[in-house]
Amino acid sequence: VIEQIRAQLERLVPVQKVSDLTRDGRSVQRELALVKVQGLGEKRLNSMKLADKFQAQVVDSTPESFVFEVVGSSDTLDRFVEEMQPLGLVDVSRTGIVAIARGADEM
Question: Are 17 and 105 spatial neighbours (Cβ–Cβ below 8 Å)?
Fold first, then answer.
């Protein structure tokens, strides 16, 4: 399966190199999510407190809703989305994992 993915990615333009970081060594991995939450009063306040706990940034705000940007491991994003559920979670958009090799060497 990895070889099929590699072959497909190498056909894309402008891919310069494909590396399997799960095989090639240590890496730093992150994922980004945009999370929309609707709420007023106490729910709105609690969603802000939770966003602060996860170091999420407010990227859009209306009197009735927020869109938060949260970056971290997939597990961190899963927890953030799960904890936002009872506070008025409306929508989630996730990038998927991006990664880069650790250390001074290039991939």
Answer: no
